[in-house]
Amino acid sequence: MRLRRVLRLFVLTVFILIVGGVFALVYYGVESHPLVASKAKLTTGDIARAKQLKVKYDPRQLKERETSILKVTEKDLNILIGYMIAQSSQADRVYSQANLEPDVGELLFTVCLPQMPIGSYLNLTASFREVESKPRLHRIAIGRINLRGPFVRPVLFLGSKLAQKMNITQELALALEAVKDVQFRSEEFVLTYEWRADVSKKIAEKGRSLLVSDQDRGRLIEYNAQIARTAGKINEESAPLTIFMSPVFALAQQRSRVNGDPASENRSAILALTMFANGRPITPLVGDQSGEHIVRPKRVTTTLRGRTDLPRHFMISAALVALADSRLSNVVGLFKELDDSMGGSGFSFVDLLADRAGVRFAELSTASAEKAQWVQQRISESSDESVFMPEIGDLNEGMMQKTFKQRYRDTDSATYRAEKQEIERRIDSCKLYYN
Q1: Nearest to residue 399, comparing CAs of 354, 352, 360, 331?
Q2: pTM recorded for the entire structure
């Protein structure tokens, strides 16, 4: 009896500590004012600059063991961070700012929360000092909770435990080993690193294992094999995307009857079709284990509404949703079109229609077991692309930056919103979406 009372008291104490800790974190962490007061909207020039920096500092251009120096101004660093956040599913809720001073680098984030009596903003700060040519976390703040010096150690300890749990400790150590020198200067960040292809490969393999589970890996191999069987029967250089979708989703329907998980089957089917439509093998996703043969389908250019570019828009957007959510894909699709308006094919509402149709397709395919089965049935029994992809006529495309600004000003204008509403109306009219 006495032991039982002690155990009850212990459990109650732990419960109170956990609840109290959560309450304290919410009470002291959530604030009524944002730390990053405003979010500057990325211009088409900013997008082009981010893309230039990614190409300029792509380490794959280096030779093995070659040392390179990366220099980024504070302004460019903020553009790069903003560009990465804009491509995430939380783009409309996260504000960021990077500050660079001699020997100190600081990252500020504000996360917009649902309206609460105590505030609506979660403000985060991480400050790094340059110590022996390496960045060292010396301060972290969550709202009014401010940890610095030795009080940061528990955070680092929890971070190391998380890395161990995720089994990425070795990869992190190798990445840090490649960093030879870090300098925080006034409005400039300088990184000296050694390019190691083997380290990059290990990190990529670990990222792949975190992205694709063993079950998903098996599914991808099965759907890839089905695509290869279909491609082997085609003698022409191109074929409608639906020629490949129908048998793939018929296989998904068959597998779902056995494992009872149609949403996961659809997710893997979409990913396999995306790789094929873009002319990419699935090996980067599933690995190439010794003694295992993974067939590469014969190259067949896919078409959608008679065009070879639209399958890529449709399937990439669908895959992004299958792995994340619709907002991620919407932003990526828009940014792709804004990039194109700087040159090349120009801004295209036809491409945006394909992007949005892909988003809606994946949302429906993975929303629930019932809806996933509905998609499997409709796609497997028909090769009519109008079931999921509307007509593209009368939509403006091929607009360069100057023409886009003259017609629509920006993406917040009433004329632009009217075009987006027309796109949604057309998609809504497809049989797959008005079930």
Answers
A1: 352
A2: 0.61
